[in-house]
Specification:
This protein has a four-stranded mixed beta sheet with strand order 1-4-5-8, covered by helices on one side. Helix 3 packs antiparallel against helix 8. The chain is 52% helix and 15% strand. It is built from twelve helices and ten strands. A hairpin with a 2-residue loop joins strand 9 and strand 10. The chain has three domains: 116 residues, Butyryl-Coa Dehydrogenase, subunit A, domain 1 (Orthogonal Bundle), CATH 1.10.540; 106 residues, Butyryl-CoA Dehydrogenase, subunit A, domain 2 (Beta Barrel), CATH 2.40.110; 137 residues, Butyryl-CoA Dehydrogenase, subunit A, domain 3 (Up-down Bundle), CATH 1.20.140.10. By secondary structure, the chain is an alpha+beta fold.
């Protein structure tokens, strides 16, 4: 890590780590139990400027020289405190706001991007549908051209921040025969008539991270809110949002760190047969294997982020970092719970939350098998 984090990055990590330790960690278990959007913490982080890492100063951003490495640090540290809270931020400050910055008009940027960076508005990105997950070309939500704009009809599912969002970028097809090239991006204000979050989906992981099913019934979207080119704008988004796989890997690393640290501390304190269980070789080997997996994931993920900051291709690296970190984090959390034994099953210890949350990066943003398929295609297989 010393090779990848310069003095500025170390100071940045120190600042966000202090906030996580003082503000997020003490509330993490309560947030998980309540399963509610932590609006106070969300707004607080916005006031501190962390939602502007990827954006220029003119919109309230940070204009950093290495924005992707900084954002990777942010995701890891937040997930160390709470994967659920980190998932909220990860969606909001990257995918949900990127589409407006990249393809929105100056008016839309001022109306949505600027307050979102300040933490005054919440954003979401709606792509997945009940019958269109990994196969995004099968999207059925339809955008019909009308005078002055578009009419959207359809539904979305598994939308992060769906019920709390003030604005949502919705993927909809303008021409089903063109498949992926016929899918466009449309910015929908959550107050628009015909739009509603029909239900908040309950899940066993990342409880405080909102996940929703959305309904669009004759939702009118002005021409200005059509984001990107007339054809294939969703393909441009896919290319631009590849970086999100690295951020998802960072979420996994943060939770893996939390699980490892908790297991190491517990192993040194818990006594059986007259000595700490850390003295038993079976426990020692688990801890060493956990550390090896954690460091492997961190080094590769930060390597991928550094390539992104240099403007180099990252299709393979982003997918691999997500595979290595997400799968590795899940294994680390399983070992951690095993070290805790019976106490690991008790809600009073956070290790059970770490294990539940470790499944989120394995699915969110594309499953591990889809990541393997992406790499295989890049290899010409």
């Amino acid at each position: 890590m010393d090779l990848l984090l310069d003095q500025d990055l170390w100071e940045f990590q120190s600042h966000i780590a202090r906030w996580v330790d003082e503000r997020l960690v003490p509330q993490a278990d309560a947030l998980d139990r309540a399963g509610e959007f932590p609006r106070e913490l969300f707004g607080e982080l916005g006031k501190l400027g962390y939602y502007g890492i990827l954006y220029p100063e003119q919109y309230g951003g940070s204009a950093l020289e290495k924005p992707y490495l900084h954002y990777t640090v942010l995701c890891e540290e937040l997930a160390r405190g709470s994967m659920g809270f980190a998932a909220i931020v990860g969606m909001h400050a990257s995918a949900a706001t990127h589409t407006i910055f990249a393809w929105g008009s100056e008016s839309l940027r001022q109306r949505y991007l600027v307050p979102a960076i300040r933490g005054e508005m919440v954003g979401a990105f709606a792509l997945t549908e009940p019958n269109a997950g990994s196969d995004a070309a099968a999207i059925r939500t339809r955008a019909l051209k009308v005078e002055g704009g578009w009419r959207l009809n359809g539904s979305k599912i598994f939308t992060s921040n769906g019920t709390i969002a003030d604005f949502i970028t919705v993927a909809a097809t303008t021409d089903p025969q063109k498949k992926a090239r016929g899918i466009g991006l449309f910015l929908v204000d959550a107050k628009t008539p015909g739009f509603r979050a029909s239900r908040r989906l309950e899940k066993f992981t990342t409880h405080c991270s909102d996940t929703a099913e959305l309904m669009l019934d004759e939702v009118f979207v002005p021409d200005e809110c059509r984001l990107g080119a007339e054809e294939g704008s969703v393909l441009s988004a896919y290319k631009a949002l590849t970086i999100d796989r690295i951020f998802t890997a960072a979420l996994a690393i943060g939770t893996g760190r939390a699980a490892y640290d908790a297991a190491l501390k517990y192993a040194k304190e818990r006594e059986q047969f007259g000595q700490p269980i850390a003295k038993f070789q079976a426990v020692q080997f688990k801890l060493v294997d956990m550390l090896a997996q954690l460091e492997q994931a961190r080094l590769y993920t930060y390597h991928a982020a550094s390539l992104a900051d240099r403007g180099q291709p990252i299709t393979i690296e982003a997918a691999l970092s997500k595979i290595i970190a997400a799968d590795g984090c899940n294994q680390i959390c399983q070992k951690a719970l095993n070290i805790f034994g019976g106490y690991g099953l008790m809600n009073e210890f956070p290790v059970q939350r770490y294990l539940r949350d470790s499944y989120f990066p394995m699915i969110g943003g594309g499953t591990s098998d889809i990541m393997r398929l992406i790499v295989a295609r890049q290899l010409g297989l």
